[in-house]
Design brief:
251 residues, alpha+beta, Virus Head Decoration Protein, Chain: A, F1FO ATP Synthase, ten-stranded mixed β-sheet, 42% helix, elongated, disordered N terminus
């Protein structure tokens, strides 16, 4: 028995706990389609493959490109590169949204692949373990934990429009996607125009009809018929609007 206790104490003296800061990032391997990606860049997952993040607070943030993570889970496919999704990773950052302090949340930025300080609610890559206050870009360790961080009450309308604008700009380089976006916009405008026309027409005709019935009750049947015709016209316009929107989307 005394030998067993001696062995336990010996092992306890040699083995220490292993923390995330000790082991670094844990990575899986994926095919990165963006040839401009370098070690430390933030990647997003798109239908066209893994590419550099270019939109702040991108909800498609997937991980960090890393050349030499401590633990790599290989899938065996040729051409795959390690991408850290948990643990500690060295991340390329920029100060376009202000100086980064230890403890700040890090998210994607308008600089392709580079992280920035997150100062409002949105998707983040993780938490900065060191600060950065230099010009241009630098690299800092980040505790990777991709999540939606509630830093403010909600994104304001300006941030929403900035996000939509950045999304549209990123798709301009793909003619097929850009044409699809234009079709969606045209279809939406046609639907909105048809429903606005119907609402305005009905809201104007209804008070006049009620007033006419009050002035001449004997003509109420004729007025009711006129109102039904207006409703029918509104329905026809709405159907035409829906049909036009569907036609544009199928072009």
């Amino acid at each position: 028995m005394k030998y067993i206790f001696a062995l336990v104490f010996l092992v306890a003296g040699l083995v220490r706990p292993v923390f995330a800061a000790d082991i670094g990032g844990i990575a899986g391997t994926y095919i990165i389609n963006d040839t401009a990606a370098v070690t430390g860049d933030i990647l997003i997952n798109t239908p066209d493959g893994f590419k550099l993040a270019k939109i702040p607070y991108d909800n498609n943030i997937f991980g960090v490109f890393a050349d030499t993570p401590v633990i790599v889970v290989h899938t065996g496919k040729e051409g795959e590169k390690p991408v850290v999704r948990t643990g500690i990773a060295t991340v390329n950052v920029t100060t376009v949204n202000g100086a980064i302090k230890q403890g700040d949340r890090i998210t994607s930025s308008t600089v392709p692949g580079k992280g920035q300080r997150a100062d409002q609610s949105g998707y983040v890559l993780g938490v900065a373990l060191a600060g950065y206050n230099g010009s241009g870009t630098g690299s800092i360790p980040v505790a990777v934990g991709i999540e939606y961080a509630e830093l403010t009450t909600a994104r304001n309308a300006n941030r929403l429009f900035e996000y939509l604008g950045a999304s549209l700009f990123s798709n301009v380089q793909n003619p097929e996607k850009f044409a699809l976006i234009i079709r969606y916009i045209l279809a939406g405008l046609i639907l909105i125009a048809s429903f606005v026309f119907g609402f305005v027409t009905f809201s104007r005709s209804l008070p006049k009809a009620m007033e006419a019935i009050g002035r001449n009750p004997l003509a109420r049947h004729t007025i009711y018929l006129s109102m039904l015709l207006n409703v029918g016209l509104i329905a026809v316009v709405g159907i035409i609007g829906i049909a036009g929107a569907l036609l544009i989307m199928r072009l």
